[in-house]
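The records we work with from here on pair a chain with its fold. These numbers are not coordinates but entries in a learned vocabulary of local backbone shapes. To see the layout at work, look at the sequence and tokens printed below.

. . .
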Amino acid sequence: MTFTYKLRVFFEDTDAAGVVYYGNYLRFMERARSEWFLQRSIGMKSLMEHHHRVFVVSRTEIDYRRSAKLEDLLEVSVELIELKRVSAVFKQVIRCGDVLVCEGKTRVGCVDTVTLRPSPIPAVVYDELQHLLRTAQ
């Protein structure tokens, strides 16, 4: 199931010409993924406090199609497409209305907050993610 997060492009997101700086699309995707986790009661704060784990980005790829501009209303979609014991992959698409702005994939890895080493996703979280992945297919 695809989750959609809406956000407005602010002045701080753009260059002098009012065009979104290319690196900010990754920030927009991060915000959407964070909200996706929160909507499923898997917020990073809770994950850190109760399981001493956190998800960190280990790989990202992005294809830019069109530029977003100052005050555009963007929709950032999040879809879990792969799940392993220590990682997950998300497909994300950013649109402005019907216009495809960019799309990409992001792999996040689960790490221990003390050692910062890869660590299995806590069972309760893994089960929830696995359920979400199965229902999406």
Observations:
- The chain has a mean pLDDT of 95.
- The domain at 3-136 is CATH 3.10.129.10 (Thiol Ester Dehydrase; Chain A).
